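Memo to structure team: turn this sequence into structure tokens by end of day. - J.P.
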Amino acid sequence: MTRNVQQLFDLQGKVALITGGSRGLGLQMAHALGEAGAKIMLSSRKAGDLEQATAELQAAGIDARWIAADCGREEDIRRLADETLERLGRVDILVNNAGASWGAPAEDHPVSAWDKVMNLNVRGYFILSQHIAKHSMIPNGGGRIINIASIAGLNGNAKGMNTIAYNTSKGAVINFTRALAAEWGQYKINVNAICPGFFMTKMAEVLIKSMGEEAMAAHAPLNRLGDDEDLKGLTLLYASDAGKHITGQWLAVDGGVSVVTGG
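Reply from structure team:
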């Protein structure tokens, strides 16, 4: 029987694990998935932030809990995966969102900072995806993986934005998404990426304020920055059966910035 739109987007009975989920884009996506009926497991490094975020979700009627973990550390990633599976039984939706950036001219960029960014933004995504797929999605007949990339992975930077490691890592996430989708389609695992533009998150706040919020917004054809709702629709599409025939794709949510910058 053909399902209606509400049924296709319904996530009742699903479990979602969201890294970097205690604030910003991660918390916004947690709201989207929880509002559609999924049980939510949040993760980030700081327990206090997670407690506050979980309380916010629960106040909205969402079934949510948390595990503190550093997704730059392999032992923490595996503990996060195992504890989530132990507590919730399965993971149907994995959102790889934890990330780091570092600003420095390429000629002076510390190698240690390069390694830190790559370790969290790329290696961490791979380890967690592998563990969740192997121990939950493949045995359970499928799942959804959503990787958070960035429009920084589509282009170089404007003058004054020196984030060579971050840009490189996000470009890697896009092709990681394509490669994983091609390999895991046989297991009914859909793998897609979101490329956000500028949102007023803690990571981007310093840059946006230094360049001027109005000036940053003016770079977008829609003349605005992203807000607390702008990732919800795409996240739910990728996570639900409404997007069951979409895999290996990326989509920019950036107000049109990548249209005028060559992405």
